[in-house]
Amino acid sequence: MKAIVSTKHGPPEVLQFTEIEKPTPRENEVLIKVHAATVTQGDLMLRKLHPLMYIPMSLFGVKRKRIPGHEFAGEVESVGANVTHFKTGDQVFGTTTGLSVGANAEYLCLPEEWATGVLALKPVNISYEEAATLPVGGMTALYILRKGNIQRGHKVLVYGASGSVGTYAVQLAKHHFGAQVTGVCSTTNLKLVKSLGADQVIDYTKDDITKSRQIYDVVFDAVGKFSSTKSKGLLRENGVFLTVQTTTKEENKNLVTLKELVEVGKIKAIIDRRFPLEQVADAHRYVETGRKKGNIVITVA
Known about the structure:
Elements: E1 2-5, E2 16-19, E3 29-39, H1 41-48, H2 54-57, E4 71-79, E5 91-95, E6 107-111, E7 119-121, H3 128-132, H4 134-146, E8 155-159, H5 164-176, E9 180-185, H6 190-195, E10 200-203, E11 216-221, H7 228-231, E12 235-243, H8 252-263, E13 271-276, H9 280-288, E14 295-299
Parallel strand pairs: 8-9, 8-11, 9-10, 11-12, 13-14
Antiparallel strand pairs: 1-2, 3-4, 3-6, 3-14, 4-5, 5-7
């Protein structure tokens, strides 16, 4: 099968498009024909990470991936003898978190259940490409927003509202939690963020958000560039500051929640660009520019 293989850390050039052996599922595993995957900030971080850094990170379930790619969507091609939740032909989506294999390949073999990642039936009303973008950004936004104890009518500020986590955070805060949402982004992304349901959009290139007279119940930094110190003047008494730099946990129930929200039309995937499998290195270069909107998809099948 064709796959992207990385045998050392470094720049995008370490990602090589090559032919490797197709995996065979063990008794508790499913073999998935990958239709789409993504490139995330996490993929960039792990590509650059020195091998020695995996020693302490292994305590948190992070393993070095010879094949990169943290999220995917595809079709189950075969299952092991002990698999009970999936069958051949199922359309699925999920993550490879905590595994030594990634999704930037034509086929992916992974357990039907494991401690650190997730796998579920994909939403029926969207494409494989759209489904592939949901697990990482969507689950991160959902997990962290829940920590804010958001009630209907609360005012929520999402800083970095046009990125992968940010686009899902705006939609979830508005359509799932029932909040009044203000999105912060650059000039070119104002229309996009407004279309996701934001009640108000602020252009950070023109307005200093810290000088705003608006007070919020929750401030969510969705890009890791806004500090709790800066948020103090924006929060009401007992208001909550949330950040994407929080340690999160992947749970199948959260992935299923996202699936259900997509199927009733409450959230949608935002795709900036698509790259074929052989151009994964170019996709990494584009993400490194910091200019992506929403998600970057790798088309495989």
